């Protein structure tokens, strides 16, 4: 079975209040994005890594790889104007059938165990989307809803290649918030698997503080 991982990183750093895009900010001595790629190689060295970056960031990334002597093999793909278009560009780089995990480049703490489980479940059921229960009370339009029914969606979101490629043939809609929503719109069932609260998405300065704590705890 061919295994692929599309790592999408298109952040600008605006919410991070930084001139440096968040995927390139260093934690533990390496850019966030390098930690993410390493996690997938640790999970399964046979996974073919496809990194989707804005074209204007590719040279900067290549320079970072040289600076840090980063040797994890990956294919670079130019991103699109939107997250949907970037995902579609990443999928276009896959020529054979198999299983593909699509992951946020700024989620560097996904565990190898979660990655491996996502491939197993997607191979058996077609889709596997990582999620965790909500810790907080939830209200929609001012009305309380049962917290037990709420799941917070993470990545990776893993699919049989044939399924997600078919789903991405749909025109882009504003309701597409992630790859799972694209697949669901195309009529495919979404299977949720257990994630981890440690699998944070680094978006704001506070997230960087949590990232350093996680690194120290796992050292």
TrEMBL record:
One of its GO terms (molecular function) is 2-C-methyl-D-erythritol 4-phosphate cytidylyltransferase activity. The keyword Transferase applies. Keywords: Isoprene biosynthesis, Nucleotidyltransferase, Transferase. Its EC number is 2.7.7.60. It holds the Pfam family IspD. It comes from the Bacteria. It catalyses: 2-C-methyl-D-erythritol 4-phosphate + CTP + H(+) = 4-CDP-2-C-methyl-D-erythritol + diphosphate. The record marks 147, 201 as: Positions MEP for the nucleophilic attack. Pathway: Isoprenoid biosynthesis; isopentenyl diphosphate biosynthesis via DXP pathway; isopentenyl diphosphate from 1-deoxy-D-xylulose 5-phosphate: step 2/6. The keyword S-adenosyl-L-methionine does not apply. It is an enzyme of class 2 (transferase). InterPro entries: IspD (IPR001228), IspD/TarI (IPR034683), IspD/TarI_cytidylyltransf_bact (IPR050088), Nucleotide-diphossugar_trans (IPR029044). The record marks 15, 22 as: Transition state stabilizer. SUPFAM superfamilies: Nucleotide-diphospho-sugar transferases. Belongs to the IspD/TarI cytidylyltransferase family. IspD subfamily. Catalyzes the formation of 4-diphosphocytidyl-2-C-methyl-D-erythritol from CTP and 2-C-methyl-D-erythritol 4-phosphate (MEP). This is 2-C-methyl-D-erythritol 4-phosphate cytidylyltransferase. The gene is ispD.
């Amino acid at each position: 079975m061919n295994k692929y991982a599309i790592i999408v990183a298109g952040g600008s750093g605006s919410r991070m209040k930084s001139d440096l895009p968040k995927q390139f900010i260093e934690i533990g001595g390496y850019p966030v994005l390098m930690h993410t790629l390493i996690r997938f190689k640790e999970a399964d060295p046979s996974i073919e890594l496809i990194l989707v970056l804005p074209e204007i960031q590719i040279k900067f990334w290549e320079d970072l790889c040289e600076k840090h002597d980063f040797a994890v093999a990956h294919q670079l793909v130019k991103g699109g104007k939107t997250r949907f278009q970037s995902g579609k560009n990443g999928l276009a780089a896959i020529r054979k059938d198999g299983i593909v995990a699509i992951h946020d480049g700024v989620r560097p703490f996904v565990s190898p165990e979660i990655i491996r489980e996502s491939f197993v479940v997607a191979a058996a059921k077609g889709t596997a989307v990582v999620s965790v229960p909500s810790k907080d009370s939830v209200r929609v339009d001012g009305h309380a809803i049962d917290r037990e029914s709420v799941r917070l969606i993470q990545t990776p979101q893993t699919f049989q290649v044939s399924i997600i490629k078919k789903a991405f043939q749909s025109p882009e809609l504003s309701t597409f918030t992630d790859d799972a929503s694209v697949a669901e719109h195309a009529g495919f069932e979404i299977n949720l698997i257990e994630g981890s609260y440690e699998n944070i998405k680094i978006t704001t300065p506070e997230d960087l503080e949590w990232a350093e704590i996680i690194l120290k705890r796992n050292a």
